[in-house]
Amino acid sequence: MVSLTDDERRARLDALNELIEMMRPAVQADGGDLVLVRCDVESGVVEVQLAGACSSCAISSDTLQGGVTRILKDRLAWVTEVVGGVDESADPFESMALGTGGYVPRYRSL
Fold this sequence. Notes:
The protein is an alpha+beta fold. It is built from three helices and three strands.
């Protein structure tokens, strides 16, 4: 395990929080939210959770893997693993009412 100074730990956590805050509006636009649950800045393990409308969204796992994980690992070289989940305590009907959830674009045939 890497041994970091307090300043290095703080800088990593600040950069992580800033990146999470940058991503949240995109998730919130569909009635969901992205929450940082915990992180170990020395081992590089970050745990996040999708909440709100994401609880009933069919593509929430894609959002975690294809979006959140990719962005965190690409922009923060120290991130080694992103553990994620969906807040399953939310009522599915309330969750669906919060946003568009699993939006799938429709294409017009020519």
